[in-house]
Amino acid sequence: MNDAPKLRLGVNIDHVATVRNARGGAYPDPLRAAKLAEDAGADGITAHLREDRRHISDADIDGLMEVLTVPLNFEMAATDEMQAIALRHKPHAVCIVPEKREERTTEGGLEVAREENKLAHFIAPLREAGCRVSIFIAADRPQIEAAHRIGAEVIELHTGAYCDAHAEGRFDERDAELKRLREMATFAHSLGLEVHAGHGLTYETVAPIAAFPEVRELNIGHFLIGEAIFRGLQPAIAEMRRLMDEARA
Fold first, then answer.
1. Please, are residues 18 and 47 in contact by the beta-carbon 8 Å criterion?
2. What distance, in Å, lies between the first and last C-alpha atoms of the chain?
3. Which residues have a Cβ under 8 Å from the Cβ of 48 and sit 6 or more positions away?
4. Catalytic position from the list 15, 38, 75, 99
5. pLDDT digits (tens, 9 = 90+) for 94-152
6. Contacting residues for 76 by C-beta, under 8 A, at least 6 apart
7. pLDDT at 15
8. Measured CA distances, 34 to 1, 27, 66, 115, 176 (Å)
9. How does pLDDT run across 198-220, given as a tens digit for each residue?
10. What is the spatial distance between Cα 161 and Cα 72, in angstroms, rounded to a whole number?
11. Which end of the chain is more exposed for a tag (fewer CB within 10 A), N or C?
12. Is 199 designated active site?
């Protein structure tokens, strides 16, 4: 029997807003999706307020802070504007992510080692305000060490390369990336960091990551919103929750 603590599921609702914004109206409502996710067993809600506001809006963050009864994980770039918004709302957690205006989705982990001094100063006020600071990074030892040095409490390991390799049938690369993720989860845990993981996870790829005893939380969004088209949001989340729990046990 696995003695690892229960694995939390954070549901990212960004792409409910993507669908809404495609028509420029008010439907579908990300806040409604967040409440449905809560009811389906989500332990938290993740929302990324991008600089270009391509999906989540400032009003969405305002609304989420008002209606959620589970923690909000506020994903944001390391900019003065986003820092000010986070300090105004003081969400349970902030996750610092890299951001490029031309990318369709977050393409990789944050470069912490090269920006160590800047990021240390950036996250200090967030920590002082009571936010748990997470850094979204690749499974790379120097980046994990740098995240620890700057005072982050949490790292979120980028699982995109692992998921892409699986989807494209590059199984040797997939297995090598999975091994790297496993080793770096263990290493980060040994430093006292809380370990999360996410990006690109599906029903097919979630179990090996969920089985890592050091991983405390998975953040999953795009796949669940897509799967909701076929089976409904709550059943889609419930199935992911089942697979996570099964892998954990």
1. no
2. 6
3. 12, 14, 55, 56, 75, 76, 97, 106
4. 75
5. 999 987 655 454 456 788 888 888 999 999 999 999 999 999 999 999 999 999 999 99
6. 48, 49, 82, 83, 85, 86, 94, 95, 96, 97
7. 94
8. 32, 14, 12, 33, 35
9. 999 999 999 999 999 999 999 99
10. 26
11. N
12. yes
CA distances from 171 to 36, 164, 175, 179, 180 (A): 35, 10, 6, 12, 14
Answer yes or no: 55 catalytic: no
**Structure token digits, residue 86:** 């986070």
SS in 3 state form for the chain?
CCCCCCCEEEEECHHHHHHHHHHCCCCCCHHHHHHHHHHCCCCEEEEECCCCCCCCCHHHHHHHHHHCCCCEEEEECCCHHHHHHHHHHCCCEEEECCCCCCCCCCCCCCCCHHHHHHHHHHHHHHHHCCCEEEEEECCCHHHHHHHHHCCCCEEEEECHHHHHHHHCCCHHHHHHHHHHHHHHHHHHHHCCCEEEEECCCCCCCHHHHHCCCCEEEEEECHHHHHHHHHHCHHHHHHHHHHHHHHHHC
Task: Determine contact, residues 92/71, Cβ cutoff 8 Å.
Answer: yes
136 token code pair: 């979204």
Catalytic residue among 15, 38, 48, 217: 48
CB atoms within 10 A of CB 65: 15
CA distance 62 to 91: 11
